[in-house]
């Protein structure tokens, strides 16, 4: 009952405000008597003229304020209202009182009837505080519903721009500003008046008349069993059906409760898309125009019955309540945030006062420190005079220490001179060792060259022996081929002579290598002698460095497999023996 009272008060507030011609917040008693009589008539409340006279009987003949009229309105009218009156007639009466004063028809693209429906929708969506306004969130909700009903696309960006240009001094729009917003076509561009009017009517039916669904369907009669087309209107607890959509000729109602149910039926008797509504005392067979419509109606009726079982209000009213609760919650959070900000500000101010107190204490401490500094300077002067004598004595001691330091410095310089000489000797010794290392590398190179020559000589000898063996084998094989073999022998003899010449050349190269080796050996001996002389010098300086001595200097032949097993003389003897054998063959 409280929700119905709040809805009625909104429409009555518009009527009371319209009667306040000079905007003083008061209305004459005669006008209020007429308003009260009209309210009792449309709300079907018994009119009590005696109570009306008693309420307004006083010495003051002036107008009555809203607060003065509310006690009578609550006690004698609103508390007696039952839900048996025509809401449209009630709203139309209040609308008639305020429309002429506030509505500028020439500037609107919608009819007065459409403006009336927007006015009623405003009362449904507005906040429960006066003066009545509709907040931007509800404006967006309403415009979205209208755009959806017109079959257009919602322009969120355009609405955001509208909100940006919204007056910050206002929390929302009044009813006349809302009618102007919808009537000027700002959010219905490209739509004709009939489309806009149909959209307003559809939203009005849903939000105000609680029409959950409506449309033409075929209904089977209970007596004659014939099928007749009817205009069905589904509301939260009833389905009404009419001859046509103008709702003038009502043919009957289907009362819904939590015990009702809806079922789909198979096609029969030439009728398709059938479904059945079962109630307590009657059953209704209905045929939709197509399967989609059938499913939509079954779903809508099923949802309505489910809401009746749960005891919940219609979806749009429940959604409106949720939006209001959400706004209250956000407002409470904002107020809590503002309260916390104020507490923080107070705490900040307290901190500032504490900091000011600390600053004053610091200034006092600084003044005390200055006094103490003055005393400290005076004490310092006294101490300076007392320490001057000790300073003179310390100068004397420092002079003595400087003399001792000079003596130690002289000794240190001599020691450093000796170290530098030793370092020079060490560098020269390093150069001598480097010369010795280079001589050893040269010796190793000569050894490798000699080994290579011996290897080539051995290879040539093996080749010559092979040719000689082939020649002997050819002689023993056949005498008939002697001439040919002789020729081959002559060729091989020539090759042998060339090989001997090459052998002589290799012998000459070997001798040259030996001469180089002798030269390197002499250099090595000279480096060794030089190292020994440096060794003697180093030994005179406390033996800081020990020289590396070279290896044995005995002459040996070197092959690829290491030192040779025979001497140079033995090698020459073997060469002469081999040449003698070749000559005898």
From TrEMBL:
- Chain segments annotated as coiled-coil in the UniProt record: 316-530
Q: What is this protein called?
A: Switch-associated protein 70 isoform X1
- What keywords are annotated for this sequence in UniProt? Coiled coil
Q: Please indicate which superkingdom the organism of origin belongs to.
A: Eukaryota
Which PANTHER family does the record associate with it?
SWAP-70 RECOMBINASE, SWITCH-ASSOCIATED PROTEIN 70
Return the CDD domains for the record.
PH_SWAP-70
UniProt KW Coiled coil keyword: yes
All copies of domain PH, residue ranges: 210-306
* Keyword Amino-acid biosynthesis found: no
**InterPro entries from the entry?**
EF-hand-dom_pair, EF-hand_SWAP70_N, PH-like_dom_sf, PH_domain, PH_SWAP70
